[in-house]
Write a structure and sequence with these properties.
- This protein folds into 3 domains: 96 residues, no CATH class; 152 residues, Rossmann fold; 128 residues.
- Helices cover 43% and strands 6% of the residues.
- The protein contains 18 helices and 6 strands.
- It is globular and about 60 Å long.
- The termini are far apart.
Length: 392
């Protein structure tokens, strides 16, 4: 274990730390704890220093080991090019092997769900939401990876939202484009959250099972509505020896390509929109332009951007939705989410568009929280549902 961490310290360039504090100055956890006068401080630099000095016992038992959102904002500003997020992942794996875990939200229900999906004899009834108006296939070149949306909707009924709207809208759009996507009846959780919880062993088991299921249908392109699922398949699976032999795209990327070739046509946009950059889609994968192209473009508009409004923090400087891997949903997370909702309202938009179901869940949860005194009401919709409406 110690050798793994030392190797990662070298690999992530952690020894080049200048102790300038720029990472701490932009870290959402650090900033919002300070704003709330929370006694406990957080600093990426301090965590990195503890790892370099091999203070593993105190580090593994530190609540702050699990506080990092892995939003990657610190890396955008680090003058030494340190890969802090990779180091944090290794430290959590080490902590898990030593018997330490983070503080899971929702009593660990989401983590338990992910581990249940590793069963060899798993028989899911996960496609009951597919209605007769949705045309799908059992094999073909284009596969739509649904993710855990069917289970999210069951777990978060109190929020009165449907993350499955993203899946339904995506399939309807694909049908209009002449595509009947493949859906996997025994698809598993992508494992993203388990890995960030430090559970590398079970993450690898889920990755292997997903790759096997995908290879059976021979898909050449896999489409995602969840930014974290895409990040897992594209960034994490190859690192653990489970690269998928297919082109991996978020729905926003796929539709932006269809827009550029005039295969997708959008009617005049009368909706006042703003867009939440998911950390995994933006800073982790560098996908910023395609969602904006879809939201601000119309074949009928002279001024293509008049109904699209950027928030104060957007693109590479975008503010995270406040919770990562279903851990540490606390007063700091609520403060981050409240600020993000305020920025959405202040932009002049009527609708906050998301490209990840978890962004939607976290932001809606805070918006409906009666203990939040500030007015942060705004309609929140997935990008595919907005594009479907604009197809007329």
């Amino acid at each position: 274990m110690d050798v793994d961490i030392r190797d990662q310290i070298t690999k992530t360039n952690a020894l080049a730390c200048l102790e300038c504090g720029k990472c701490t100055s932009v870290c959402p956890i650090s900033l919002f704890r300070r704003n709330n006068s929370t006694n406990k401080r957080y600093s990426p630099r301090v965590m990195l220093t503890k790892a370099i000095r091999q203070h593993y016992n105190s580090l593994f038992q530190d609540y702050d080991l699990w506080s990092c959102l892995a939003c990657k904002k610190c890396e955008e500003y680090c003058p030494s090019g340190i890969h802090y997020i990779e180091l944090m992942q290794t430290l959590r794996l080490g902590a898990n092997r030593s018997g330490f875990d983070g503080k899971c939200s929702h009593s660990g229900a989401l983590q338990t769900l992910s581990r249940m999906m590793m069963s060899e004899n798993l028989q899911q009834n996960r496609l009951t939401w597919v209605t007769t108006d949705l045309k799908t296939s059992e094999d073909g070149e284009i596969l739509y990876y649904v993710g855990c949306a069917p289970y999210f909707d069951a777990l978060f009924t109190d929020l009165d939202l449907s993350t499955l709207d993203a899946a339904k809208s995506s399939i309807k759009i694909l049908n209009r484009l002449g595509i009947s996507p493949v859906l996997l009846s025994n698809e598993r959780c992508c494992g993203h959250d388990l890995l960030w919880n430090g559970d590398g062993q079970n993450f690898k088991m889920l990755a292997e099972k997903n790759v096997i299921e995908i290879e059976k249908v021979g898909a050449k392109t896999i489409l995602f509505s969840c930014a974290e699922c895409l990040s897992a398949f594209k960034n994490l699976y190859p690192d653990y020896g489970f690269a998928v032999n297919a082109e991996l795209k978020h729905m926003a990327q796929f539709l932006a390509e269809k827009l550029s070739t005039n295969e997708l046509k959008l009617i005049n946009n009368e909706m006042e929109l703003t867009y939440q950059d998911p950390c995994r889609l933006g800073r982790h994968l560098g996908i910023y332009d395609e969602p904006r192209q879809l939201l601000s473009t119309s074949q009928e508009e002279a001024d293509v951007s008049k109904h699209f409004h950027e928030m104060k923090q957007h693109g590479k400087k975008s503010l995270c939705c406040g919770v990562s891997a279903w851990m540490n949903c606390d007063v700091t997370a609520k403060s981050i989410q409240t600020e993000r909702l305020k920025q959405a309202r202040e932009s002049g938009a009527e609708i906050l568009v998301v490209a990840c179901p978890k962004c939607q869940i976290h932001l809606v949860c805070t918006m409906k929280d009666k203990s939040i005194k500030e007015n942060c009401e705004i309609e929140i919709r997935d990008i595919s549902s907005v594009i479907l409406e604009r197809m007329g």
